[in-house]
Amino acid sequence: MKKVTGQVKLQCPGGEAKPGPPIGPVLGQAGVNIPMFIKEFNAKTADKKGYVIPVVITVYSDKSFTMVLKTPPASILLMKAVGADKGSARPNKEKIGKLPMAKVVEIAKQKLEDLNTDDLDSAIRSISGTARSMGIEIEG
Amino acid sequence: MTEPRYPVLVLEAPRDDVDLLIGKLTLLGAEGIEERDASTLVKNTSGLVTLIASFDDDASAAAALEALGDAHKVTLDAVVGDSWRDGWKAHWKPTRITPTVVVVPNWLSYDPEPGDRVLRLDPGRAFGTGQHPSTALASRAIERRLTGAAHGLLLDLGCGSGILGFVALMHGCGRVVGNDIDEDSIINARENAEALGFASQFDLRIGGFEAVPETSALVVANIEAKVLVPFAATVGARVEAGGALILSGILVEQRAEVVAAYEALGFSLERAEVEGEWICPEFRKA
Fold it and tell me: Is pTM beyond 0.95 here?
């Protein structure tokens, strides 16, 4: 069995990762073939253009690697959902948009696996908290 | 010569703030973000998470720094130089990509077995070392089709380091025309062609599909489904009637989409070899 030498965690643009920093330096340091990672990541996320995709790369002693793709950060999903291009600087006073609770539940379901829980209520509370800290009002 | 400089913002934050910060950094123009915690190769064992976000230029990094405010510890830094690009090469070992072809980094010695064809290569920073299944699959398809057969011309669309063209030339193909949109890849492929003694047979061009207007009875394209599907008509037009088309860089789950796109153009699927998550469909044009 191949020995795991470490993990690298990156957030890259779906379908459009490039070999520059921060991807290249950390993978180069780990001995991973950078063009090969870029090819694999872009092929596997070609349908997720416009989203940031978290990826956990496990590097083995022979410098081969495997990757696990995660769902986009909740903040990105929420901003896409309200059509905003940035969060509020003063979320208590300035709201950037409103979301129905049904949409929050939809995002919570999408994020369930990555939040390391099978408790949907807990995931909804977590996503609602992120929404409020961005200045998104939840209706319903 | 001035070394290239890549600006980055380095932040430290509690785990609970990371999702929101990644969203903010992305919207502020970060091109990619590395996360360091106690579980990563480069560690942060303080209990906090380090985020390293890269930006196109100093101005956008400085603007992001200002926009982030002072809620977290943030510093503007830079990655200087390009030496990291070649670090992985130290670990690259000779790789058998077909029953007869072994790719050997040109700085290593290698003792070939009887029947081996040794392909000495320096891939530079281009894709195509033979380590990736998509390259090995396409190489095996080329070897199978050229063994015992005469082929005058191979078109290698999206040729990267030129590895597939070299495999074809080593199997008696008379001439290869290759293209790539990445200028560095073509420069690197030309250097390899020169070193291998194939310079006069390998015509390497910078550009997209328009750079290769020729048609041939054998065409290979190791690109990606997201390019091969929308450009199916363009790729298909490069194949002569009755000719063969080898496609690679395709995930097994993308098989149906790719096959449908080419069957709609009058191609029939002859074979589709799989290695790991990757598939290499081979078509015949009507």
Answer: no
